[in-house]
TrEMBL record, chain A:
<keyword id="KW-0479">Metal-binding</keyword>
<keyword id="KW-0001">2Fe-2S</keyword>
<dbReference type="InterPro" id="IPR002023">
    <property type="entry name" value="NuoE-like"/>
</dbReference>
<comment type="similarity">
    <text>Belongs to the complex I 24 kDa subunit family.</text>
</comment>
<dbReference type="InterPro" id="IPR042128">
    <property type="entry name" value="NuoE_dom"/>
</dbReference>
<dbReference type="Pfam" id="PF01257">
    <property type="entry name" value="2Fe-2S_thioredx"/>
</dbReference>
<keyword id="KW-0411">Iron-sulfur</keyword>
<dbReference type="InterPro" id="IPR041921">
    <property type="entry name" value="NuoE_N"/>
</dbReference>
<feature type="region of interest" description="Disordered">
    <location>
        <begin position="275"/>
        <end position="303"/>
    </location>
</feature>
Automatic annotation (TrEMBL), chain B:
<keyword id="KW-0479">Metal-binding</keyword>
<keyword id="KW-0411">Iron-sulfur</keyword>
<dbReference type="Pfam" id="PF09326">
    <property type="entry name" value="NADH_dhqG_C"/>
</dbReference>
<dbReference type="InterPro" id="IPR019574">
    <property type="entry name" value="NADH_UbQ_OxRdtase_Gsu_4Fe4S-bd"/>
</dbReference>
<dbReference type="InterPro" id="IPR050123">
    <property type="entry name" value="Prok_molybdopt-oxidoreductase"/>
</dbReference>
<dbReference type="Pfam" id="PF22117">
    <property type="entry name" value="Fer4_Nqo3"/>
</dbReference>
<dbReference type="InterPro" id="IPR036010">
    <property type="entry name" value="2Fe-2S_ferredoxin-like_sf"/>
</dbReference>
<protein>
    <submittedName>
        <fullName>NADH:ubiquinone oxidoreductase 76 kDa subunit</fullName>
    </submittedName>
</protein>
<dbReference type="InterPro" id="IPR010228">
    <property type="entry name" value="NADH_UbQ_OxRdtase_Gsu"/>
</dbReference>
Amino acid sequence: MRRAVQKLALVAESATACSSLHQQALAPLCTSATSALAQGASQSPLCQSNYRGRVFVPASTRGFAANSHDLFNQHKDTPDNNADNVFEWTEANLKRAQDIIDRYPPNYKASAVIPLLDLAQQQNYGFLSLPAMNSVAKMLEMTPIRVYEVATFYSMFNRSKVGKYHIQLCGTTPCRLQGAQHLQDTLEKTLGIHIGETTKDGMFTLSEMECMGACVNAPMLAVADYSGGVEGYSYNYYEDLTPADTVKIIEALRKGEKPKINSQYRNKAEPRGVIQDGKWTPSEGTLTLTTPPRGPIVTNPDL
Amino acid sequence: MALNMQRLGRMLPSLPVSRAFSTAAGPAATQATSPTPPSPPPPPPPSDTAEVFVDGQPITVPKSFTVIQACDAAGVDIPRFCYHQRLSIAGNCRMCLVEVEKSPKPVASCAMPVMPGQKIKTDTPLVKKAREGVMEFLLINHPLDCPICDQGGECDLQDQAMIFGSDKSRFVETKRAVDDKNLGPLVKTVMNRCIHCTRCVRFSSEVAGTEDLGVTGRGRDSEIGTYVEKLMQSELSGNVIDLCPVGALTSKPYAFTARSWELKSTESVDVSDALGSNIKVDARGSEVMRITPRLNEEVNEEWLSDKARFQYDGLKRQRLNTPMVKGPNGLQPATWGAAFEAIRGAMAGAKGDEIKAIAGKLTDAETLVATKDLLNRLGSGNMKHEDDVAAEPVCADVRSTYLANTTVMGFEQADAILLVGTNPRHESPVFNSRLRKAFLDGAEIASIGPNIDLTYKYQHLGSEPAALSQLLASEHPFLEKLKSASAPAIVIGPGVLRREDRDAVMRAVHELVDKAGVVRPGWNGFNVIHDSASRVAALDLGFVPSASARSAPPPKVVYLLGADDWMDREVPEDAFVIYQGHHGDKGATRANVVLPGAAYTEKSGLYVNFEGRVQQTRAAVPVLGDAREDWKIVRALSEVLGARLPYDTHSAVRARLAEVAPHFALINNLQQPVWLNGEVLQKDVPFQSPVNNFYMTDSVSRASAVMAKCILAKQEAKN
């Protein structure tokens, strides 16, 4: 329940003030800052607020499950997701599922659980409902709990209803250093939702993900497109993003267009540049590794 | 607080290694002995052993051992949470870290196999620091609620934190909070306390065979649970309470009723089924507070069925605590003298076989022999056990025809098992876990009988005796399997003995035994299992109708020894009924005179389990009110009836028992089965288990509110 309370507290946060919960928690740190604010001075770095005045809540106290929008690691009945829902494999997907199962020896059928769950998620509009997981369990002759364990472990499996486009913003250090927080602010403003929420029209779900391995083109986000079922499914990276690029991508997706994927500013390592202060800044010459490396130089004596 | 040795002893029960093949003789390894130690396995050939050094002390152990087992064998205590010798190795608590020479880091001893010449160090500064560090991490999210925790005082985490932990934590962030799970009316959960050792998960998937529990989520957010809220489906679910090293899973009925150090433990035997699981009855004053299993490798290992564990609240309800005599206003409290006088009056009008005794499910052997002696002295041979419902009584002449000759432990060797008319999951859940163990070791199991989930895969050959005939008639694949098996076994359920065509079924089974060579030199695979604790003792003592009693007229006096499940034709309308027992159930309602007896927790009595093992209960609490031990009541009554029984002390009754059946001093007396002749098979009457409601089978469990809740919960889960 505590998680739900925290989540509600997050939702209830107004656009202008910290929630009382966080105000209390951060009160000792903020004393100097609030007095400074009263004098119109800048805020203390310890109580950094984003542009909407909202205090950034560290992920460690936020209390989500493996991914941003599943609050619990236990099943809670909702109208979209309960044991009475129906999940039927389409004929094409049944064939796909069989192809996947055939890749593994018959006594190791359970190896197919991750690809099958992925397939079920694509067919089921982006999330794994209880009947979807049960049908995978039945297909692979596993007990349902073993499937639930896998589905709750991986952040790419969603267990509650998501929008057509699942926007997953990288929140790990390199992207944060390159301005991921600004992207988050922009996304939240543009979509009118916070991390872990879905827009009212059911178009977008916003999530925070850990490192997706595109640090070289930080900041980045990934979009899972569930609008077209298994056939139209795509999972694309959008890299080297400025807040303005992010808005463009959202608008394009909203219109059903296909925005430019991968880096927004280059096709390979060239041209050199970096996102700095919310805009693309080309770089000239070598910026790092300009001097010979310091010792000790260790080489493998076997080579 | 010193490490609770008794509890550790439960955690490390009899180790498969013994000093027999340890080269260094030392006094250390004796702390973990079982009450009835299994015979030590023969020393393996030298090539299969390895010599290792534990803290410099040499010890020779099988090569299959892990480092923690070698340390246990050397008598060195290694702290552990996730490791359990009856479950698979998880290696996730890291508490068992030890130093191994030439290994750069401390190693998890539970997951590291021994190597010849390995030098294991368990008391170095590195090990101390490693344990302290692990303990600090384990305590990060563990609430400091020991004062309100039921596990307090018998908690592995508490004990080990005291010994191996630090005095403070450096963790200043918020502790995580986890939803409590509803696992049904038996297991209480406080999931904040969970340290994710996964013993319960492994138990439910490996031993119980009902995969209910799992670990959901990951990292800091991982939780133990069922994901979808549901009841634990197993009849062995209470064992996760014992397995849980912390207070995350505790007993719901026991919650907040007692502290472990207030309890007086009495070693006893369970009577809720015919397996005779060894139990510890924990009492405070005159009240039984809880029942926990006691280790006995040959019977119940360390498991206990939910009924045996949780029915004790039935001992506090519906009890008979004073003699009663039926008058014009129904049953009225009376003195013992008045009750005996009433009986004498009624007995005066009956002679010979007109006096009938029916033994109940929970009657101890002493009472059986005393009653038999009394009836014989009164000229009657009209006695029977209430489970003997078929027209012809079960033949008690040859002991091996009604015993599980393979023995419970012997089933671990069986490689082909045929179940006939039995549902072991309900008739004896702990025995069923032994069958599951055999299944996991590769035994092939087939069943002729109810088609139900037995927690393991089996071939269902049919529900009726016709399947037995088919198995015999043709070159059936399973018959071939039995023939080619090195240790085939047949298990006949208690339902078969209640059938009208019992003799025909038994004859068919014996034919099968002969055909498939189920009984061979050194191996007896013929087994009959029973569902009530007193059944085998009654047969052993010949508590069956005599030849004359079988054609006797309807009885005028019926003496019910705690018998409640008799059929109406057994007790005629006009008969004078004496009910001697401890619960006001069906029998007491019908009675003219009620004699209050002692329940199994209140007396010392002998019971014989279905493999023929004589075991005794011990009095954990005093008898209730005016009640008396059952054999004493019969002895006192004999005096009033002028047929004085020649024993005055308990030991004299025991001596009489050994006189009637010498194995009451001898355990596991195996005999070869003989042929039985019988009638025609009722080919279309399906086999049925007599246990159609696992949670309520006798007067104690019928009086238990917890058992009633279990039934409700199962029904709700079905709907």
